[in-house]
Amino acid sequence: MSSWWTVAPVALPLAAAALAFALVGQRSAQRVIATLTALALVPLSVALLMRVSQLGIQTAQLGDWPAPFGIAFVADHFSAIMVVITAIMAAATAIYALSDIDPARESLQYHPLFLVLVAGVNGAFLTGDLFNLYVWFEVLLISSFALLTLGNLRNQLEGGLKYVAVNLVSSLLFLASIGIVYGLTGTLNFADLAVALRDAPAGLVTVVAMLFLVAFGIKAAIFPLFFWLPASYHTPPIAISAFFAGMLTKVGVYALIRVFTLLFTHDVAWTHGVLAWLAALTMVIGVLGAAAQNEVHKILSFHIVSQIGYILMGLAIFTPLALAAAVFYLAHNIFAKANLFFIAGMMRRAGGSFDLGRLGGLYKTHLWLALLFIVSAFGLAGFPPLSGFWAKALVVLASLDAGNAWLAATALGVGLLTLYSMTKIWQGAFWAPAPTERAAGESASWPLVVPAVVLAGLTVVLGLASEPFIALANAAAAELMNPDLYIDAVLNGSLGTEVAP
Amino acid sequence: METAVAITVGIVFGSGVYLVLQRNLMRFIFGLILMSGAVNVSLFVAGRLTRGAPPLVPGGASVPPEGVANALPQALILTAIVIGFGLVAFALVLLLRTYERLGTVMTDELTERLDDPKPVPGFGDDDALRSDGAS
Q: Per the CB < 8 Å rule, is A168 touching B86?
């Protein structure tokens, strides 16, 4: 059963979530299930990525209904890479949560909700069906709603309302666009749609493309649709914030890259031109918003928005190099960004606050924390030899190659401002003299430190030994630029490689 | 027939948008309900309307005869209705909790009530959970 590998990254966390829900009231059992599942996902997803590398695009036809009639799960390089990243992030978050999530929230079913969230994210990455993508989006949305407001603190409720309201509207737009696409083509399978849309009237297809851009753009938090993100992401506990910051907006970015490489390539000059402008504005507005903030986790929230712009820029330029840059940037950004949230959580524990005015002196008391922060922050800002350097270099190279100098200049300028924000945190939290009256800092326990060290290590590895990772990103980009591979694997490969048992 | 339904969808969706733009979050949720109803009907129309031809497979055959109604949009709508129900239920509970803790459902008052909550009498305002998120 080779198709099992393609379904497993979704099936495993769902099954574990069901098991954990059944064990209501047994917190330690739930904790063990969540952690083991998240750890098991890592080898499982790496195995999937290796299969994709060796055997080509993997497909699974659920219920053995041949495409395009049934629901197909498709793992190409891009999907498989995203699944591996999700697994690593899930494992890191699960370990961090052991120490960060309080017993009260555990009793409110934190662990099962988290597992459902992971299943939803993986489902969105692997599905090959537009309506199924909507379903996975809703699965991850409803669990993220619950996680975001878990505990009912006042600021969580206030931030949660904004998050829920905007995302519900985005889901409705997504569903409406699905209806129009279905009315236009009579199919919902990605591969089949890609073929059918070639004969559809170009004007209508552009309208649908823009509807999808708005629907996914809200989820990806691009300009001008990002305001819900800085309003809500800083409210839940750091373990939840970090996973959201790393993964959730990236699901929106993944969906954008998927539809704008596979489905909507009929009028690249217009659609991807719009994307280029949005990418530039997202970068600039996000980084300026961050510069105005004075609390660590709020600065980081705005930086999520800014970094989305870089990834979108890769998609907008739409060359193999640019898409490889976007994929590499996604991986780099998820690790670096989530790790900065993890570290911010430890800074708060050590210094008693997120507010830069009240932090300080951590360099003297917590040197190891300062080192971790430096690696991730400089990684994010793009210092060699860390991962961000290659990510930024590739994006800028790609835009210069495509003759898009203004986009490259914007990216470099925003990189400088990113550095400004990171220096601000560094100065406020680590170098500034410690405030006189300070709440006694808690010592960090190993579940907090281990994920941060691993993710910081990944930032270094992605930077120092970037060759194999860039090769993977290139393979993903080659598949994205050549949709016929995907279409062929789903529509014809379903009979050849995936024989029913 | 499709045209009439399409116009109806437009009117209902427009009414939903009007409600969504209100400051009162209760009306916002009513607007969402209207919009999701309109979207569901539009999915239905997208599959084309066929009257008096249920998609039944006659005995002995393996495919239904030509010209029967399209059954797929109905499956999609069924899924969408269930999902929409869950989301609206969650949104309503979230709004209720917010009203209990902050004492308002008006968007422009929410943020200022963060520092100056006016909890509804009869509900406690104890911060049982002090967490990283609490500022």
A: no
Please name the residues in contact with A68: beta carbons below 8 A apart, sequence gap of 6 or more: A187, A188, A189, A191, A192, A490, A491
Q: Is the pLDDT of residue B134 over 50?
A: no
DSSP SS3 for B22: coil
Which tens digits make up the pLDDT trace of B61-91? 888 888 888 888 899 999 999 999 999 999 9
Tell me whether strands A58-61 and A72-75 are parallel, antiparallel or unpaired: antiparallel
Q: Which of A154, A181, A297, A343 to mutate to test the interface with B (most CBs of B within 10 A)?
A: A154
Chain A partners within 8 Å of B95 (Cβ):
161
Q: Is A165's CB within 8 Å of B91's CB?
A: yes
Please name the residue that has the structure tokens 């961090």.
A96
| B21-32 tens-digit pLDDT | 999 999 999 999
CATH 1.10.287.3510 applies to domain B2-51+72-113: yes
Q: What is the pTM of this model?
A: 0.92
Give the domain ranges of chain B: 2-51+72-113
Chosen from A157, A211, A235, A349 to mutate, greatest number of chain B CBs within 10 A: A157
Regions of chain A short of the pLDDT cut 50: 494-501
Predicted pLDDT at A171: 93
- Across the strands, what pairs with A295? A355
Q: Tell me the percentage of chain A whose pLDDT exceeds 70.
A: 96
Write the ipTM: 0.88
pLDDT digits (tens, 9 = 90+) for A117-128: 999 999 999 999
Q: Token match 């990455």: residue?
A: A125
Q: Is B96 an interface residue toward A (CB < 8 Å)? A: no
Give the Cα separation of A440 and A287 in Å (integer).
33
Q: Kindly give the interhelix angle for A154-185 and A130-149, rounded to the nearest 10 degrees.
A: 170
